[in-house]
Predict the 3D structure of the following.
Amino acid sequence: MDLFTHVIFAYLLSFVIWGPAAPQYIAAGALAGGLPDADILLFPLTRWFPSLHHRGLVHSVLGVTVIAAVGAFLVPFLPYFTHASTLLYFVAMEVGGLSHLVLDGFTNYAVAPLAPFSRKLLRMDADTAVNFTTLGLTAVTMGVLIYEHGRVAFNVWTETAWILIAVYGGYLLLRGLARWRAGRDAKREGFSSVEATSSPWVWLLTDERDTPDYYRMRYRALRLGRGPEPGERSMQVAKAPPSTGPVDSPQAALDRTYAAAMEKNWWLRSRYHFGEAVPSGNVFRVFWYVVGMGGNGRAIGVHGEIDRATGAMQLKSGFFRLPETPHA
């Protein structure tokens, strides 16, 4: 999830644990809720220490514990924090940091909470990592809390916090139950997994096979209460080595461009992806995109052209509009 939602969630969780009488621990928990995302600043070091990549070692129980241990000694010296129990500051920051891991694992992003001892991932696919619903809710929450600071009675602030806790808790419960129901439908329809969308009522049923020789993907939209939507999409491409020469079909265009497209966009190769090829004069227009990412006919991934006669390709990464009549 986004940084601000992590901070707000950790703030509200800390309020539940510590109550309104311990604002210093609530603030410490909220601060720790956002700190794991500071690993993005370690990007220059990942060349020598790959485990420091974003959502790497810092997004683990070990990383969170180190942050909490250091923070427990440093936080009392920050503005607006009081000198209090070092142990309780550690507990507050540990809980805030762990909430960050849980929220990330709740979404379609994966974290390895037991790294470096285990590479097993936590990924529940119950929500999208960037969701305008949660962004809007977080913006409203921050606005309310900032407005109430120093303006309302203590009991009003307390009641507001409990209301916000109920709203966030209800949202997470809704997404979790919807994910469970979508998972049941996916299993019944023969799909291996479920991909979240921004709506808790709309999901993508997916089935991916990724082997050294080929990549296969099929997916279909599911609207809870109405069942699977018509228009299942499926494709399979051979992981052909780079080559030149004539390209005689849309399938050959997909086979020929697959490796180049994956190399060009790490985001594409790290998510469920799908390809389309459309004849256009002397070339095939190709589109490789992340399943479920984008809207209004646009997607994110790699697109471009491959020459029918020579096999020369021109590909670029970014957002693009999908063809109106895609090749399935």
